[in-house]
Amino acid sequence: MHTKNSLLTDLKSTGINPSGTLMVHSSCKSVGECEGGGDTILDAFIEFMRDGLLIFPTHTWEYVKRDGFDENGVPVGKNNVFDYEKMPSCVGILSNLFMKREGVIRSMHPTHSVSALGADAADFVRGEEFLQTPCPRNGCHGKLYDRGAQILFLGCELSKNTYLHGVEEWHDIPDRLTEKPQEIFIRRGGELLPCPQYRHCFSGGDVSANYVKAEKIFIENGAATYCKIGSAHSVLCDAVKMADLIGEIFRDEPNFFATP
């Protein structure tokens, strides 16, 4: 059984910068049986990153519904209100536990919020309520590049790499966002703030399923390394190197991720 101390030992061997910026995509189950469950996993990460900025995605794209399109091609759905204080994350147990921790601040992006813990967490998440696409260059995912962040895929594949959605968005890759925005509101206290959103789309299905094809490229070019935390076989990625490598590919092959 894994413990907080054994997980800390594992974290020290990964190459994660404990005073840097770390985003964690996670599969709690993959870590294996832990004394204290998911909270122990978080305890280890929080202690290890106490001098840095720790971030978990707390996305809600699955709950802020887009059930279809109206006659004008505008996406519509039954639930178009994001309550950033109450709506759960749709991306895993650890993300939901993390955003409830003391000191953690959640961004107000209505579909792709993140939650952060650290001295400058408030600055990191500020302004997301004014963005109209999932991962714009001036949002939290773009800030990962600016901060030279690391992104850990804890027991999960690079198909979970939301950051690559961002890189595609920054390079204006076609057929990735809806042509018209969905009407979405953010509930903040007693008011509803309008925040229309261009949603992710891809005529070929789920484009993120094709992101795994970049794993070998990242490993071979020093943008990613393998590590193990608990029982979770994981991938640790460099945000700058990932984005730069994919940017080079896009110059010659902008639809690189359109096929498996």
Structure description:
The protein has helices at residues 4-12, 38-48, 93-98, 121-125, 140-146, 162-170, 215-220, 239-252, and strands spanning 21-26, 53-57, 68-69, 75-76, 81-83, 105-106, 114-117, 150-154, 185-188, 191-194, 224-229, 232-238. It has 260 residues and is an alpha/beta fold. The chain has a seven-stranded mixed β-sheet with strand order 6-7-2-1-8-12-11. It has a three-stranded mixed β-sheet with strand order 5-9-10, with no helix packed on it. Strands 3-4 form a two-stranded antiparallel sheet. β3 and β4 (75-76) form a beta hairpin. α1 crosses α2. The longest helix is centred in the last third of the chain and has 14 residues, at 239-252.
Figure out the total of helices: 8
Terminal CA distance: 37 Å
Please bin the fraction of helical residues.
25-40%
Main β-sheet, spatial strand arrangement: 6-7-2-1-8-12-11
User: Gyration radius, to the nearest Å?
Assistant: 18 Å
The number of E-state strands comes to 12
Run of helices and strands:
HEHEEEEHEEHHEHEEHEEH
Low-pLDDT segments: none
**Structural class category:** alpha/beta
Bulk shape: globular
The overall pLDDT average reads: 95
Strand count, sense and barrel status of the largest sheet are: 7 strands, mixed
